[in-house]
Amino acid sequence: MIRVVLPHHLRTLASVGEEVQVDVASPVTQRSILDAVEKKYPMLRGTIRDHATQTRRPFLRFFACGEDLSHEQPDSPLPEQVARGAEPFIVMGAIAGG
User: Fold this and answer.
1) In this structure, is residue 45 part of a structural domain?
2) How far apart are CA 15 and CA 45, in angstroms?
């Protein structure tokens, strides 16, 4: 099971707690995790990634094991700790303003 932490607005939309769990086959990648999240919670389709391009939405960032993975390739394998479920894959709302 892969652990995924969602930002508050997406938790509210999906009516879930801070962390959700999804089954993902190897290799565990950003794409495979987000595909599983969108399949399990269809109301989140288009909120994390653009429907057409599948690119990350502005003002959302991806983290795992203390590293910002937002600009990594979506099919790059994630750290082993995420694949084992020891560490969560985090979707975080970026902070902007002045």
Assistant:
1) yes
2) 14
